[in-house]
């Protein structure tokens, strides 16, 4: 029986999805990762998914600590290879709903190859890329999404490398659902996650969030709230605004919302069909 | 005639989880909260409009607003 929807006046009970003994979490004060996790938990509640049917997989990094706090089936694997482990698990047990928590460095640098081939195969999973433009856990080195000119531990005079556009990359590699959100627009992110969880195929959601401790301190941001205002609120515009805004206001900003959505045969289904047709005769 | 007593919301803050990042303080539209020591505390409960923005944006699962 479907549980009656909670009234708005009653706060959402996150604790039913969390391993309460693991809290407080290790993320720094003001880190956006907790806000992203909250949006995801609300989206999971919207879809009324059972905790036993979900599997959360991650690699290494700040973002990849997420599975440690959620009370689903969880798998914490090696750096950049969360996609490969998740692919194996999904093929072994296709009934599981896979969610991958990964960071910009984990997905784009160390696991870049695994990321593009997961997108190409269109395996049914939700990939959440927490993009804070820095390697936070190891001390603030520049990552593949650090903007040009930003200071990092390994770019003391400013970064000269152009950053990756994760959404364009996912789209080009063949992901069938590509979206971008921010930790600031937390309710919009919840709706995006709800759509992504209902999608059959590889769904990539890039979430812009902020690292106030490393990126913020090195780049003269005053604190977590200012970073959320400057980077997440003023640095993005929604797909609805895209037509109305003049080009000069869009320059240097990222578009958020559902950017790409197509239907394509899903890998596990195609594989099962092949086995039935060829190997069971 | 005496006005009926205004029903106040209840704000629960877990001091154990709160890291005093001040996101809730900065995004509260009516300045209900403030940082005191290593945790955020309720400064002015009567101003609370139950908008839940603090609850939505708290990264540490530390604050909840009950009607």
Question: What labels describe this entry?
Answer:
heterodimer; A: 281 residues; alpha/beta; Rossmann fold; eight-stranded mixed β-sheet; 34% helix; disordered N terminus; B: 67 residues; alpha+beta; Alpha-Beta Plaits; two-stranded antiparallel sheet; elongated
Please describe what this structure looks like.
The complex is a heterodimer of chains A (281) and B (67). The radius of gyration of chain A is 19 Å and the shape is globular. In chain A, helix 6 (186-197) links the parallel strand 5 (177-182) and strand 6 (202-208). Chain A has a single domain (27-279), classed as Rossmann fold, CATH 3.40.50.970. Chain A contains 10 helices and 8 strands. Chain A has helices spanning 33-46, 82-92, 104-110, 112-121, 166-173, 186-197, 212-218, 224-233, 247-250, 267-279; strands at residues 54-58, 73-76, 97-103, 125-131, 177-182, 202-208, 236-238, 254-261. Chain A has an 8-stranded mixed beta sheet with strand order 2-1-3-4-6-5-8-7, with helices on both faces. Residues 1-6 of chain A have low confidence and may be disordered. With 281 residues, chain A is α/β, with parallel strands linked by helices. With 67 residues, chain B is of the alpha+beta class. Chain B has a single domain (10-66), classed as 2-Layer Sandwich (Alpha-Beta Plaits). Chain B is 15% helix and 24% strand. Chain B is built from 2 helices and 4 strands; from the N terminus they run E-H-E-E-H-E. In chain B, the strands form 2 sheets. A two-stranded antiparallel ribbon of chain B has the order 1-4. In chain B, strands 2-3 form a two-stranded antiparallel sheet. The longest helix of chain B has 5 residues, at 23-27. Chain B is elongated and about 40 Å long. Chain B starts with 9 loop residues before the first strand and ends with a strand. In chain B, 33% of the residues are buried. The A-B interface holds A 7-12, 14-15, 18, 23-25, 27-35, 38, 183-184, 186-187, 212, 223-225, 228 and B 16-17, 19-23, 26-27, 50, 52, 55-62, 64-67.
């Amino acid at each position: 029986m479907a549980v009656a929807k909670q009234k708005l006046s009653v706060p959402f009970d996150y604790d039913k999805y969390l391993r309460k003994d693991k809290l407080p979490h290790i993320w720094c004060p003001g880190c956006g990762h907790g806000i992203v996790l909250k949006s995801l938990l609300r989206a999971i509640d919207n879809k009324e998914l059972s905790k036993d049917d979900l599997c959360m997989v991650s690699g290494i990094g700040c973002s990849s600590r997420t599975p440690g706090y959620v009370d689903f089936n969880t798998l914490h694997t090696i750096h950049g290879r969360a996609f490969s482990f998740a692919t194996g698990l999904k093929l072994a047990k296709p009934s599981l709903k896979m969610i991958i928590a990964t960071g910009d460095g984990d997905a784009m640098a160390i696991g870049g190859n695994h990321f593009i081939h997961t997108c190409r195969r269109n395996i049914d999973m939700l990939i959440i890329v927490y993009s804070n433009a820095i390697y936070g856990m190891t001390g603030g080195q520049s990552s593949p999404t650090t903007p040009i000119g930003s200071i990092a531990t390994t770019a003391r005079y400013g970064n000269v490398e152009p950053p990756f556009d994760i959404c364009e990359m996912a789209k080009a590699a063949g992901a069938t659902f590509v979206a971008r959100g921010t930790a600031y627009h937390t309710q919009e992110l919840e709706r995006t996650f709800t759509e992504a969880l209902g999608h059959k195929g590889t769904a990539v959601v890039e979430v812009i969030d902020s690292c106030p401790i490393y990126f913020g301190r090195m780049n003269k941001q005053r604190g977590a709230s200012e970073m959320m205002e400057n980077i997440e609120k003023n640095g993005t515009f929604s797909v609805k605004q895209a037509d109305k805004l003049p080009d000069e206001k869009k320059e240097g900003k990222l578009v958020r919302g559902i950017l790409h959505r197509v239907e394509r045969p899903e890998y596990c289904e195609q594989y099962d069909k092949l086995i039935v047709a060829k190997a069971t005769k | 005639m005496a006005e009926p007593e205004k029903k106040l919301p209840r704000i629960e803050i877990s001091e154990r989880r709160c890291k005093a990042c001040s996101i809730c303080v900065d995004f509260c539209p009516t300045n209900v909260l403030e940082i005191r020591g290593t945790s955020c505390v309720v400064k002015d409960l009567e101003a609370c409009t139950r908008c839940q923005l603090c609850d939505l944006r708290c990264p540490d699962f530390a604050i909840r607003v009950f009607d």
